[in-house]
């Protein structure tokens, strides 16, 4: 069969400056027997070939790209080409996705994609394929499909899937239900051969402390430069923090979410301990680790001054990067269900709204109106990513040590925010 594997963009014409390898497409390619002819398209970085000869099309779909995926799928189905959709959005909303695809994959691809291919060859695709494992045993991607697409020189590697935390807003929890599963360490180390810079894409690299320690000890001699996502509680574990430092960690993405303890309790993240942010960040800075902080606005304790306070914190703590987002209720999460019951969703299904824009508020907060939430997030993003702010945040040991990475990442982040802010219909 001739098979096209597609990651749709957020909207037609959107080209992402943050060009990172799409592991899902690499994994599908690795799971596809060599007798099939595959083409891989990442609409974030290249145009699609909608008219080429093809026998089966598979889309990897997130909620932000769902509307675009449906538009593209309609083009293929008009030609009589069967369409398969998998990923987070189809798993969380299979009934919706079924209206736009010939088959829906629920859960991970490792134990479903081979059956999809067998059924497609036989000419009788089933409507749904459900993964037996949550998570499934992660497979290594076929990296050949990433060549020539202009991705950033950072190897994306997955050690494990899932997170034991139960944050109200998180789609990871909705997808995996709190379970965690790791790949064999030997497989991960083989995938790291020849890499210089690595991003471990795990939902929470600290999901299993013992597994993480084994990984870090194994990569210490390799002199890698790596980044990932972790809990701020790393700063409370001197042994682990020292090992993270010695193994070559450059930066970590950490979800602070809010400076208000009441908000953290409401979102199921009271363990974050807002009162200890500054002390914990000081330990990370002392270890030479840059911190990319993420913040959510729109929880019940937020008022119109929350943007100024949070921006002052992010700049004062000299965060490497920061993300200031309006609260985004993803389908299948407790947050979405709660806000729907309270009648506080701006749109019932925001991902299908023709006029929805990436930076637009999706909820009606208790402490401000949606327009204030929209403009406040934009204001914080613009101030944080301004030239003066970038220079003010520079003088730390970690930023000076990784100066080129610091400057390049801030420029790419700024460009990506501007590109997304221009998006109209999805």
Word description of this protein:
Helix 8 packs parallel to helix 9 (238-246) and helix 12 (306-316) runs parallel beside helix 14 (370-384). Helix 9 links the parallel strand 11 and strand 12. It is globular and about 60 Å long. It has a 6-stranded parallel beta sheet, with helices on both faces. Helices cover 36% and strands 16% of the residues. By secondary structure, it is α/β, with parallel strands linked by helices. It starts with a strand and ends in a 5-residue tail after the last helix. It is built from 17 helices and 14 strands. It has 2 domains: 2-130, Rossmann fold, CATH 3.40.50; 153-421, Aldolase class I (TIM Barrel, Alpha-Beta Barrel), CATH 3.20.20. The mean pLDDT is 93. It has helices spanning 23-31, 66-78, 88-92, 94-98, 113-122, 171-176, 185-191, 209-219, 238-246, 261-266, 277-286, 306-316, 334-341, 370-384, 387-392, 397-401, 403-421; strands at 2-7, 37-42, 56-60, 83-86, 103-106, 128-130, 155-157, 160-161, 181-182, 197-200, 225-229, 249-257, 290-297, 321-326.
């Amino acid at each position: 069969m001739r098979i096209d594997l597609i990651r749709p963009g957020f909207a037609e014409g959107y080209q992402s400056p943050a060009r990172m390898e799409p592991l899902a497409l690499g994994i599908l390619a690795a799971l596809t027997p060599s007798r099939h002819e595959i083409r891989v398209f990442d609409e974030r970085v290249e145009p699609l070939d909608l008219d080429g000869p093809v026998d089966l099309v598979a889309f990897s779909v997130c909620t932000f790209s769902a509307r675009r995926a449906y538009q593209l799928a309609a083009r293929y189905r008009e030609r009589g080409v069967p369409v398969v959709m998998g990923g987070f959005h189809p798993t969380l909303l299979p009934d919706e996705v079924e209206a736009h695809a010939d088959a829906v994959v629920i859960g991970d691809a490792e134990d479903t994609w081979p059956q999809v291919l067998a059924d497609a060859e036989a000419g009788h695709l089933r409507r749904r394929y459900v993964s037996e494992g949550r998570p499934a045993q992660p497979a290594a991607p076929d990296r050949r499909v990433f060549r020539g697409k202009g991705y950033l020189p950072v190897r994306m590697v997955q050690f494990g899937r899932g997170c034991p935390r139960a944050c109200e807003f998180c789609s990871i929890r909705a997808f995996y239900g709190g379970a965690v599963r790791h790949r064999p360490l030997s497989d991960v180390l083989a995938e790291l051969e020849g890499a210089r810079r690595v991003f471990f894409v795990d939902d929470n690299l600290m999901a299993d402390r013992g597994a993480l320690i084994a990984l870090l000890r194994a990569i210490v001699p390799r002199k890698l430069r790596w980044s990932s996502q972790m809990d701020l509680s790393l700063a409370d574990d001197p042994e682990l923090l020292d090992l993270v430092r010695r193994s070559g960690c450059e930066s970590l993405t950490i979800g602070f979410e809010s400076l208000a303890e009441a908000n953290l309790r409401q979102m199921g993240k009271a363990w974050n301990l807002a009162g200890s942010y500054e002390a914990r960040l000081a330990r990370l800075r002392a270890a030479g680790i840059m911190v990319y902080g993420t913040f959510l606005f729109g929880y019940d304790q937020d008022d119109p001054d929350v943007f100024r306070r949070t921006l002052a914190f992010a700049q004062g703590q000299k965060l490497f990067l920061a993300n200031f987002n309006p609260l985004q209720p993803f389908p299948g999460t407790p947050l979405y269900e709660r806000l729907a019951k309270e009648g506080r969703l701006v749109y019932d299904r925001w991902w299908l709204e023709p006029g929805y824009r990436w930076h637009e508020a999706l909820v009606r907060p208790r402490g401000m109106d949606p327009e204030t939430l929209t403009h406040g997030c934009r204001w914080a993003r613009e101030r944080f990513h301004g030239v003066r702010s970038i220079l003010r945040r520079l003088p730390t040991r970690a930023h000076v040590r990784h100066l080129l990475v610091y400057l390049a990442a801030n420029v790419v982040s700024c460009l990506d925010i501007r590109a997304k802010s221009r998006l109209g219909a999805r």
